Amino acid sequence: APTAVGGSAGRALLERPEPESSDPLIYAIETAFTEMVARRRTFVFTGFDNLEGIQREIRLISDRMARNEAERAEHSLIQLIERQSGQSRIEDLVKTLTAVADVARKTGYIIFAERILKGIFISGVEDCAAVCVRAEIFKDRSQFEEALQILEEAILRFPNNVVARNARAETLRALGRLPEALSAIEETIDQFPNNVVARNARAETLRAL
Asked: Please, what is the average pLDDT of the chain?
């Protein structure tokens, strides 16, 4: 998913004297992004920062959430943030944080997920996957109109993101707005003709009409 940090967002990170949050998790995220923007890392994965290693750490955090070890899960995430911030690019750390936030949401740790996302957003990083996870939290709370608004805004900012488009159509279906959902699905298929999720959603929506 697209990630952007630059322009005014990048300047804001560089000009902020120190992270403002008293929340240790959000503080760790803000600190990491600030340091990474200052370094402007562009190199490829090295050492700890490899996909297998990151996925292993995410599984560890997920396992701790599944065992209701919330404090240990948060501690592990902060350690991962600190290690990855010294060896990674911003977009890669955002992917890690978004993946953990989504696992937290699915495991029922909604506040944990929201804290992670808040750390991303207040740091000025724009990431469509993170926005989609935020929309899913609203949907989990049956706040479908709010979720739809978030997704509409995401599509305006990231018009080529198929995940956001599929999530918007799914949200319209949940609201019972089937003709609008079908129209949204058709738009997605026009842009992404081989997308299986959109094609399956079209079949299901046509059956429901």
From this structure: 87
